[in-house]
Amino acid sequence: MASTTPLKSILRPQPPRKKKVPEVTEEQKAQIEKDKRNLDLALKHAHRIQYQKDVEATILNSTIALLDFPSSSTFTAREALAFTTLVKNFQPSDYDSLIEERRIDSKCGYVLCPQAPRAITLGASATWKLKKGAGDWCSDHCAKKALYVRTQLSEVPAWERVPQQFPDIQLHADDAPPEDDPLVRRAKRAERVNEWRTKVADDEELAAERGEKTSSFRPNQVMSEAVVEKKVTGRAKAPEIEGDLFAMPGGLIEGYAPRKVVAKSRIGGKAQADEYEDDEEEEDYEEELDDYDE
Question: What is its main location (predicted)?
Fold first, then answer.
């Protein structure tokens, strides 16, 4: 069987052609930058809208969860803590919606009360026996405790608040759990830890803006207190004045010529030039007269 050898071309191999990259004009660069800014702005607004939707969904879920409070005839410390935590994102209008939903569900408007509202217990006579809105609670005492929580809520929407604008909700003195309760101590400890983490994060951000590097999570040790004197490499020299000192116009302030002085020097120089031209014209006229006399 005859072996076949690959055929070789007698032509000189051509180098691969380089693709020409089209040059980008200044207008195209400006358009690219504009499109990039528009995209960043659109994404920023999209993230903000999505965050608003997430917060509104959280408020709705909190309202649904608070409809079932309390689970027994008396509320527990865990339910009280959950109540103060869930209503932090509420506005007063959201809290009013919660009270209305509980009244429709035949429950007192105060979340920690298991009784039925007076609008249910009094029946049709509640419309003329009670003031407007008084039928949402089982008693005036529950109304007082519910409004005590409402006054602590922020009018700013939760998606527009800064961390300092989230209120620390406190229950009425009659329902406040004791300080030695384990859940209360644990919740307060968690709040202190969150505040410390927020403060450390803010200090690290400020240090990054100053161009410093934090070596630990201790905010008070971000900056160094060591002061080092700068080394002098040469002798101090007085500034030198360029040009002739006496040729400078008067009125200079430490070598700086104000506008009036510059304008005055220009006017003076122009006047001197005009006088010189007049003198030359007079000399030429006198020479012409002498020639005429001769």
Answer: nucleus
CA angle 290, 293, 294 (to 5 degrees): 90
Provide the residue type at 112 as one letter.
L
What would the pLDDT profile of 150-197 be if each residue is shown by its tens digit?
Answer: 999 999 999 999 877 888 899 998 887 766 566 666 766 776 767 767
CB 109 within 8 A of CB 137: yes
Determine the Cα angle at 34 with ends 31 and 39, to 5°: 125
Cβ distance 107 to 148 under 8 Å? no
127 and 196 in a single domain? The answer is no
Asked if residue 131 is part of any domain, the answer here is yes
> 253 pairs with which residues across the strands?
256
- pTM score above 0.85: no
Longest dimension (CA), the chain: 140
CB-based contacts of 198, cutoff 8 Å, min separation 6: 163
Integer Cα distance of 163 and 144 in angstroms: 28
> Is residue 267 domain-resident?
no
Using the CB atoms, write b or e for 270-290: b if 16+ within 10 Å. eeeeeeeeeeeeeeeeeeeee
The answer on 84 and 182 residing in a single domain is no
**Angle at the Cα of 247 from the Cα atoms of 246 and 253, rounded to 5 degrees:** 75
